[in-house]
């Protein structure tokens, strides 16, 4: 039995342990049976967005993001993506392209990657179960290393690479962590943005549960980058550059922070949790999230990590340029 088989079996075992948890939510049926639930408003594009999207609309928006994260981590951790049984649905189906397994040198980072991969796969399975026949298919996803691809474009916007160069998130532990940093903070702000608008308590609990897991992931990635950044300060400065690039897309300069510490000497304070002055996590509306994953500050229906756009009704980014 090779290492890839071992890892895949470990992921399947972990997924089975989550079955009891998912069964709790499955009891509430498919999207046609959902009542109340999520309502997510657009911050800057009220003309194109519903003021109160249906529960299925919002769950499908979240599913698109989970496809992206799950495929990235699955390939990075195991060299294989999601099974075909987790990819079909309505809308234009596409493939996740360009990814490969990371040859990790830090055992802890490899273990983190496998844990997050299993969690994100579980999120995809849960959302698809909740949506039933209303679930959207996985759209085309770019998680490759091409100089003109999404990761390279994002890294270039942050000043991490120059024109014509490529950013390879699978090259080493540090690149993997920086690529994960791009996704995780955005996922937290996306779920946080929806949470005040959830009226059904069952789905509020589900949203809170996914938000908590995404926050754990983000803290795991940020903590690891911070620890490695003590010996390699360029990692810390890279997170600040990525944060600034995200803020340049979402139209709000107050929603993002890298991991640069504050103070000096005995008063030095880390910045693992990006919070406002009240110690509260930030929120993004769905179209602000699309600005970031489309890598476009303008109103668009595709680009970046989703070259053809996301599937579902909530598919246009905000006009922030």
From TrEMBL:
The chain crosses the membrane at residues 24-42. The keyword Disulfide bond does not apply. Keywords: Membrane, Transmembrane, Transmembrane helix. It holds the Pfam family Ferritin_2. InterPro entries: Pigment-catalase-like. PANTHER family: DESICCATION-LIKE PROTEIN, OS05G0151100 PROTEIN. This is Ferritin-like domain-containing protein.
